[in-house]
User: Fold this.
Amino acid sequence: MDRKELLKHVHIKQGDITREKTDAIVNAANPTLLGGGGVDGAIHRTAGPGLLEECRTLGGADHGEAKVTRGYNLPAKHVIHTPGPIYKNGYSGEKEVLTKSYYNSMLLCKENNLKSVSFPAISAGVYGYPKDEACSVAVDTVLNFMEQENYIIDVYFVLFDRDNYERYEKYIASLQIGNKNSI
Ligand code: ADP
Assistant:
């Protein structure tokens, strides 16, 4: 499918991902999958103790892996938990691992036949990934996945901060006019 057609299925929002009513929200987890700060803490607080109980059965996840649970008290039906990379210097495989986090999350969406998914800016908080690069990896990976797998899903990037929302807005606009390097 045409890239510009696929872009119509990529949406951005500013706000709190725990309020999303999509088929799944993605959690920027840590490898224990037992909760933490940032978006992870917010998701566990809203979902309630059932989420932690199910997460205890999963045995953790490596950076770049993804595992799915139910959504419990969240409006979303499922939570996809993926630990992104911890950013060191940019030469330690960070981009590959961040790509895997998005790719493996999309794969779970496909396997579960989901129609909509909401992503936070994985690794762009405490894990320290530079925000411009985290944005382009996120958008490029979901578009590549849809194209390669011939799978259409409505993808929402839910950005907590205004400046990150504007970053995604600008990057997506640059793809719409076919200038990938304008970020
Ligand atoms: P990581 O450890 O992967 O960096 P963080 O939770 O520290 O994860 O941050 C990831 C991103 O999620 C940051 O951009 C942060 O501003 C954002 N964030 C924090 N809380 C929420 C929330 N409730 N909804 C959406 N995004 C959030």
Summary: The pocket of adenosine-5'-diphosphate is lined by residues 16-18, 28, 38-40, 42, 84, 120-127, 158, 160-161, 164 (CB under 6 Å). Strands lie at 10-14, 24-29, 67-70, 78-83, 116-119, 154-159. The chain has a mean pLDDT of 96.
